[in-house]
Design goal:
3 domains, globular
């Protein structure tokens, strides 16, 4: 931020908001704030276009807080709609900081948490609600969220909400708030549906766009040093571990395309001594927030994330962004790289490109006009890798014990959010006991004697098979010589019964007993210690000679 940027006081900000921001070292406005504040404070509808990390939150947050100013008991008076849970939490935190001396109450509402705490907070009264579309509509339909007194409506990251399919929910929410309101819409890009949305629901809006002399919205700032390497799949983790030991590296975000890859990379890095955490869709909200808090506090300095899970994450002081897997397109690349070089800082972006990803990478370079069309073939020991990224000599893929100074993920407590719905996010519940069915209705043509008494005594199927001289489920019983296989209908032939002393009668009576609803051999003198009569599988008779 330049010293010639205006201060918040010069832009007409409420004195108590100025004091609250100054207490955390924020005194001068960014470009988007300088353009937005005079219009929004005056009550006009505004469309703000600026890339992520340029200060949009205070651009709409200060006018919103200033309009509400005095707390009032009862229903919310401002509604902020965000695309992701992480962004909702971040916006709530920023508003609470800026409005700390006004006494305004802010509440974040999003899925993945229990309803009860959010409903309780709404009943106690809040001034500002920040939430994701789905949970907001749920609470509105249940009658817990009142929207009839909303004075200010903010749509944050509108293009992200469009990408996530929230546009119908947004339109429904807008229809539920009073028509006599102020609406502020912020977006990094302005696709057609967002423009149409603004024309329908905003009243004579003023559009502002923040761009410096050497950058444009959606384009990577020049303060980011970009590198691309053609990496071998078996060497990428080793390369990654060495890059993480580069001089001057601070907080680092690593991007993957899949949840499984993100989890595996985080585990691999932790095994090599790095303080790493993962954020992906298979984690519950409590675990996601634990990882983000640990990253913000510096307890971990490596965050491995998928693109969807990383949407809305706004963390300053990220020095390195590493694309472990090549982005899908130029938009994803810009969003990833935009995590570094914020607030006038510098940053480093590294992209690993597999051989089969080269065509996609070249398209990204063409669109963004990057001079990285032919990434050099690189290994963890390549000299140019160490020179480009300032990696010291004699560096291995394991962090030395003396440098393992971070507290780690376990040092951050997991907040009990009362999460609803396990999905794949938590331990599986104990399997319910299902009584086994026996007899013809269970085994069909290959019915065997009941194993229920043995199972009641704690015996496994394999133990039972051993005692009964029967094959286990994954084994095939050898056929004794001189015997024949049973017929297709599952009944033994007369030759099968020859020599089966004491069992022929029981086998003959088994079908009738089953038809009567009884277990074969349930009561009879031929019953063995196991209970019911066992049926033996007979092998095919050996051909007679001669």
């Amino acid at each position: 931020m330049h010293s010639d940027n205006p201060t918040f006081a010069e832009l007409g900000t409420h004195p108590q908001i100025v004091e609250a921001l100054a207490a955390v070292g924020i005194t001068r406005a960014f470009a988007i704030q300088e353009l937005t504040l005079p219009l929004a404070i005056a009550g006009h509808d505004v469309i703000g276009q600026a890339r992520t990390g340029t200060g949009k939150t205070l651009g709409f947050g200060i006018p919103l807080l200033q309009r509400l100013a005095t707390p009032q008991a009862g229903t919310p008076r401002a509604l902020i709609v965000a695309p992701t849970r992480e962004l909702a939490v971040q916006v709530t935190h920023d508003l609470a900081t800026a409005g700390s001396r006004l006494g305004l109450r802010c509440l974040s509402i999003y899925g993945g948490r229990a309803y009860e705490p959010q409903v309780t907070a709404l009943r106690q009264g809040v001034d500002v609600v920040v939430g994701t579309p789905g949970r907001l509509l749920d609470l509105r339909e249940q009658g817990h969220l009142k929207l009839d007194r909303i004075e200010v409506l903010v749509l944050d990251e509108a293009d992200e909400m469009l990408d996530l399919g929230f546009l119908p929910d947004i339109e429904k929410l807008i229809s539920l708030v009073p028509a006599d309101r102020q609406t502020l819409l912020f977006s990094a890009t302005m696709p057609g549906p967002i423009v149409a949305l603004a024309r329908r629901f905003l009243r004579q809006p003023t559009q502002v766009r923040a761009e410096s002399h050497d950058e444009h919205p959606g384009i990577i700032p020049p303060a980011v040093a970009q590198f691309a390497y053609r990496a071998h799949a078996m060497d990428k983790v080793e390369m990654l571990a060495r890059i993480l030991q580069a001089r001057g590296r601070g907080l680092t975000m690593i991007f993957c395309r899949t949840k499984r890859t993100a989890a595996k990379i985080a585990d691999d890095l932790a095994g090599r001594g790095f303080a790493a955490a993962a954020v992906h869709g298979d984690l519950g909200q409590g675990a996601r927030e634990q990882a983000l808090r640990a990253f913000r506090k510096g307890k971990v300095d490596v965050l491995v994330a998928t693109d969807v899970a990383a949407r809305g994450i706004d963390i300053e002081a990220v020095t390195h962004v590493i694309n472990y897997q090549c982005p899908e397109d130029e938009k994803v690349y810009v969003h990833r790289i935009g995590r570094t070089a914020r607030a006038g800082a510098t940053g480093t972006a590294v992209t690993f490109v597999d051989w089969d990803e080269l065509p996609r990478w070249k398209i990204i370079c063409d669109v963004l006009e990057l001079p990285l069309h032919e990434p050099p073939e690189t290994y963890s020991t390549s000299a140019h890798l160490h020179i480009d990224l300032d990696i010291g000599e004699n560096i291995s893929g394991v962090l030395p014990a003396a440098q393992r100074v971070r507290a780690g993920l376990d040092a951050e407590d997991v907040e009990d959010l009362g999460e609803t719905g396990r999905g794949r996010r938590g331990p599986k519940p104990a399997a319910r006991h299902r009584p086994e069915r026996h007899g013809p209705e269970r085994h069909g043509r290959r019915s065997m004697r009941s194993t229920e008494p043995a199972r009641a005594a704690g015996q496994s199927a394999e133990q039972l098979a051993d005692e009964a001289d029967l094959p286990a489920a994954n084994e095939r019983a050898p056929r004794p010589p001189g015997t024949r296989r049973r017929t297709r209908r599952g009944r033994p032939t007369e030759r099968d019964l020859v020599g089966a002393t004491g069992t022929a009668t029981a086998l003959a009576e088994a079908p009738s007993a089953a038809a009567a609803g009884d277990t074969p051999g349930a009561a009879g003198g031929n019953e063995s210690s196991g209970g019911a009569v066992r049926r033996r599988r007979r092998g095919r008779a050996a051909p007679s000679g001669g």
